[in-house]
Structures are given as C-alpha cells and as structure tokens.
C-alpha cells in the first residue's frame, strides 16, 4: 500500500504500477467490492503525473495516490451503475467535481466500487452485483451503503476511497470494516454528479486507512491553502492546541476503551453535561428524518420506478414505495421543523467542542444475526448527525477482538478541519 507520499508508478513511468492495479482487481474480486476497474483513466493520469515530474514541476498534494469511487459518483468515461439493474450503461460525460478535485491534486482513480442499490439501505445487503464481503471476517456484515469503498480500504488495496453518507453510509461501513470514515458538514462538499438519495441529508464522505491522508484529501476537496505536497516528513501532520471539552453523554458507562482514547490528550475536559439535551434531540429528529427521506427518495425515483419497479432489489423497492403517498404540504412543514431543530441543536456546543459517541449501537452484527432491529442499531448514532448536518468521524479502535470496534467523534457544523486535527491527537 502506498505510504501517502510517493506515487505508486513503475520505474518506466508510463503507467500505474501493474502490481498495484492487480492488487486492486484481486481485492475487488475476492471481496466483491469492484464494479469496474478504471485502468484507462488511471494510466492516462499517471502518464500526466510522470510528465509533470520529468518537467521539474513540484509534486501535487496527492500525487500518485490511488483512490476508489463509490458507483453512484460519476467518473468520466465510465458508467455509473448505482449497484442496480435499473440504470444506463452509457459512460458519464463528466466527472463529479469531487473526483475532479482529487485528480487535480494528483490522485489516481483505480476502481468504481460496489454499493447498496441506489444507496438505499444501511446493511449493504442488496446490490445487483451481490453483496460485498467484509475483509475483516466474511461472516460479518459490511454495512452500507458504501460497502465496496470501505472494503477496498480495509483490504489494503487502496489507501483512500469516496463514498456517500445520508444516514451513516460512510461511517457505519467504516465501523464494521475497521477503517476511518468521515462525513463532512452538510453542504461543504459538492454533490453534483452524485446520484441522490435524500438531498436534505446527502453528503459525500471519505474512507482512509490513515487519518492524515484523509485530512489531506478533504483539504483538497474543499480548497486547502496549497495544492503542492508537504515537505517529506511533514506530510499530513496535524496538531490540535488549546483546552478542549469533549462531551461523552452518549457513551454507555462501560465504554472504557472509548474513554481511554481521551486519556493522552493534554488540556482536555471530559463532561456529560448534555445528556438530557442530546436525548431530547434524538427523540425529536428521527420522525423528521424518516418523513423527509421517504418523500425525497420517492421523488427522486418516481419516474424510473413507474417503469422498472420489478427490476429494483426487493427491499429497496419496498422503501421507495413507502414514500408514494406522502404529501408535499407535510414535507414543507417537516423541512421547517428540520431548520428549527438544526438551529436549536447548536446549543449543545455552548460549552462543548466535540461529542464522543459509539459508532453503532452494539457489536458489529454477523450476517446470520441480522434481524428487523439491526438497521436501527447501525444508524442509532450516525443518522442524527446527518439530520443536524454536523461533521462526524468514525475512528477504529485498535486491538478490538474478533469484531471491529469504533467510536464516532462529532463536531459542530463547519468545524471539519478542527475535528480532524483533534482526532489526530487520539490516534
């Protein structure tokens, strides 16, 4: 796996290292994580990178870093399959801006990744390509919807991947597969060229095996100070400074391993002052999320669904159908309630910099343990921060036993860089 600084190009310098591409393809096959290898695009951009190097230009911030793209995000020249049989196989005419920005910084797209059909489902159990296999343990649920992107990072095939997150679809697969998963503040990352699920909550997110690389990629996407690579030895170095307050109200009392993360951070105050307020928020936001998501998803799909309902995955079709009879007037009222809730919720951060929560409610489920309550447990701590629009990061816990364990660090809206810098002190 690339170290986050050196391009994975061969000595001839005319194509992406064949071994690197073969490793991605091997992992894609083994874990059913890849819908298409993007070799032509990878080789063309690698040739451009080599030409820049040979002409004496300084390396860009992500020069030669391979990355994967969830297959609801457009990459020019390749179909966007949405993990569905209900699709056009025509190649995309343009890439999504989030892809363009990574490529402009030197990153190399190597694969489109398998996902829950149309991103509609947190378990990752329904795709026209079959479900993704968890590299940690094939018996464990991968979660979704960005299952394949998480799997390629977890398998060590790529250090960086794009996903989307509407109720936890980056952070929950990251927790189930033992990698970093970041959902930026709502609206910070452009969603043009990304097939929507629920536009009120949709966010493009990032998976990475290294927090520094994830942070560098985020800076590139939202517009960092420099496109050039940091000096060797200083690459992706982050530090946080000053006294911080972390609220752990949502952590169960026995989450000692999660609390241990905080022990090494100087000038840190740990509080549980927001327990009642957070409990009230969780109660208030779930109905708002459910109505808006059902309404918007049906509106997104209604034309396709009218013609091809039988070709959708059964569980996805059922979810889409559930939004059919919801009225626009009530939808407008729910949007107003959402705006009021987002404004009211900011009071949580009056004396708190960050929240530390579980990533999911309970252990990562095995596929044979999935029941009617599993999806709600997976979304228990992730979905609220899509509703509120706050930044949130899944942090894997080391030495977690036979099932991955993770926590979620949450920051106020717009605090993305501050959150990532503080997280760098924890890992």
UniProtKB/TrEMBL annotation:
InterPro entries according to UniProt: Amidase, Amidase_dom, AS_sf
Alphabetized GO MF terms: catalytic activity
Domain of life assignment: Bacteria
Pfam families on file: Amidase
Domain (Amidase): residue spans on this chain: 19-420
Chain intervals for the UniProt region annotation (Disordered): 1-20
Compositionally biased tracts (Basic and acidic residues): 9-20
Official protein name in the record: Amidase
The organism of origin for this protein: Brevibacterium linens
